[in-house]
Sequence to fold (151 residues):
Amino acid sequence: MSLNEEVELLRNIPLFKNIEPSKLKLLAFTSERLVFQAGQDLCVEGDMGDAAYIIIGGTADVMIQTDDGPKTVTQVGQNDVVGEIAILCDVPRTATVRAVSEVTALRISKDLFFRMVTEFPQMAVEIMRKLATDLQRTTGQLSRALGRAGG
Fold:
């Protein structure tokens, strides 16, 4: 994939939709393109985060460790961003992201991610929207699970 194709791909991601093309080109150029085979982990729950990942292609499960073993809480795919919580909050990874199929992803280092958020406040707003949506979904799932456990 050419640099221009990666820029076009980044432009389709809500997080980057308002960033000028020259900055997207810099992001595409400075990020690392990785391929994960089915069963490989992009990131592991409990590890310290040093990067976020933008999924270019393929699907991956987002899993958390429970008393009954790993549980898939959602599935992510093209244009999804994963791993941002650990680098934004300087906390261990909150989940494991495991490739279900071959996954191609752009790895964005913590430093680059923060530089982009600092330079583009709209990106910070989009991150807040994503995190709020994720929290709402997780809260709903927890509420339903507690309702089943109590009833």
Summary: The mean pLDDT is 86. Residues 121-150 form the longest helix (30 residues).
